[in-house]
Every structure is written in structure tokens, then in C-alpha cells.
TrEMBL record:
Pfam families xref list: Response_reg
PANTHER family: HYBRID SIGNAL TRANSDUCTION HISTIDINE KINASE J (PTHR45339:SF1)
Organism expressing this protein natively: Nibrella viscosa
Alphabetical list of InterPro entries matching this protein: CheY-like_superfamily, Sig_transdc_resp-reg_receiver
Domain called Response regulatory: residue spans: 6-124
Position of the signal peptide: none
Presence of the UniProt keyword Phosphoprotein in the record: yes
Protein known as: Response regulatory domain-containing protein
Alphabetically ordered keywords of this record: Phosphoprotein, Two-component regulatory system
Modified residues (4-aspartylphosphate): 55
Amino acid sequence: MSASKRVLIAEDSSVIQNLARKILEFQNYDITAVKNGEQVLQILEKEDFSILLLDINMPVMDGMECVRRVRALPQAEKAAVPIVAITGNAKNYTEEEFKAAGFNDVLVKPLNFDRLVEVVNQLTDN
């Protein structure tokens, strides 16, 4: 892996955020973590990421609203970034709804960390 791949994790649970950070850092990813979708949009204005991991249920702006806003960004590269939903309420949405909103994949809580690494690797290995 030449340049470090950058992962933006938006997750309001510190436990999940820290576990995901540690596991992905062990895989040589550079991790930035925020607590809500509004912070995702703010940081995307200034920085580029290889992939976004968005919790669906967050305060201020949830993952569904955030993914729609990212996909609507005027910069084509930023709007096309791979985005993975992280949800504890997968039954609230169908796979089609996640895809229609703009997600590339969905991870269900409790997180399977092998699957997390597999999905991040798949979506960032262009």
C-alpha cells in the first residue's frame, strides 16, 4: 500500500468508533472520526477520504441524510467516494433503500470486524 488510505468514521458511539479505529489502523488506514453527519460535511469541505463509514442513527444529522448530501456535492470526486452504512437497525430500511440513498454497502451492528476490514479493503482497492 503506497499512500495511506484515509477513512472517515462518523459514529456517535465512542466504543464502536474506537474499536473500528484500532482495527483499521492495524490495517494501515489513516482514521479520522467524528460524531455526526454535519461534522462529516464540514470535514469533507477541507479534506479528501478514500471511504466514509456512516452510522445511520446519529444526533444532528443521521447517516441517511448525510449520504444524500455527500452524493449531491458539486465536486464529482467527493460525491463519488465509497460510503458504507453502519446500523443497529437494519430492519428499519431495506437494502434497496440503502442503495437508493447512495450507500455502497451496509454493515450491521454488532459489527463483524472481519467483515468491516473486508468491505473497506474491497471499496478502497481501486
